[in-house]
Predict the 3D structure of the following.
Amino acid sequence: MAKKKPEVEPQEAVAAEYTVVARRYRPQQFEELIGQESSAQALMNALSGGRVAHAYLFTGARGVGKTSTARILAKALNCEKGPTPHPCDSCAICRSIATGEDVDVLEIDGASNRGIDEVRELRANVQFRPSRGRFKIYIIDEVHMLTTPAFNALLKTLEEPPAGVKFIFATTEVNKIPVTILSRCQRFDFGTIRTERIAAHLKSIVQKENREADDGAIALIARRAAGSMRDGESLLDQLLSFGEPVTPELVHKLLGTAAAERIAAIAQAVLRREPRVALEAISESLAEGVQAGELLDQMIEFWRDMMLVQSCGPEAPGLTNPTSTLQSVLSTANLDAVLAGLDILAGTKSRLKFSTFPRLLVEMAVVRLARLDQILGVGDIWGMLQSGGTPMPAAERLATSIGSTPTATEAEKKKRLSRSPAPNL
Ligand SMILES: [Zn+2]
């Protein structure tokens, strides 16, 4: 099996110059793993108790620390002063593992070594003793890419693991791993990393690099990273490479996105049924280089946030926009309109993929959104005619809006929601 080239990942290869910073801050000890404390602690306990398994499976989204953890575990097992939960980071073995060049630690990319022949080669090599370390350690990244015959061949090795061999598998798609393999691995699930923790880490990098970055810009990068520390670091690297202080404007320029205030202004305009104002804001954004698709994604995020705040209150988890920006818009919104709006935006998103007129689709979405109140009004009357009841009085409808204390019971709310017609997409 061909050894994975050290340290070259596709997006890093493109921006090799930028990634120096991210690589320099790669965690080197279990204690430095951000957001994966429980896995780190369990591995440290196994090391100090001498209960290290033959095979591990690290699962989780990309950029959350699976490969970093695998390398730290490899160091911990083979460090000249180990096995230890605290590898020394100064011996020759620790240093060569950290750069991905150690002879006994083989990092293999499962995507490009997925066949039976590669696994056969691996099985033949497994028999040889490690050159200088205590263990021969195979780190197989993207292991879900292996073919079925390759998995079967690998299973034979896992069934009778030679002494002195450890396997660490990493995958983003654990559902594609055969049960027979799963049952022979100790599994660790790596969760996505919370936005605040990514932001704190990025901020510390900026300080260590003696550079300047606005807190708002850091928050934007961290939200954009969507739980992946590596994505956050890559983005920060690119921004630092501009050689100027990192501001929200710079982040938006690099990403082709609009400022949160602009998105809030569009939302405000459609909720006030002022399509002209919203269309002007879209036109200005596009003229400034914002991509129509990005703009739509940002609008979806904003509407989603409005739904979350209306359903869970201002402390709703997972908000992507600042609460202050949301609150200013929400006083004019009602949950039915927000839900119907999300339907329109999501429908536009799926159509955008196949369209050569992204701008037109976004504009149509905005005009539809601005007419929602009228559509909902008709829906209420239709619901009344259907049920023989009375339409919801304006005052009661107002009570369901965010600013006021909801007085309606859950059942009543459901009834109201069911009255809103599915918008015509
Ligand atoms: Zn060491």
User: Anything to note?
Assistant: The pocket of zinc ion is lined by residues 79-81, 87-88, 91, 93-94 (CB under 6 Å). The chain has three domains: 10-190, 195-255, 260-419. Confidence is low (pLDDT under 50) at residues 6-18, 389-425.
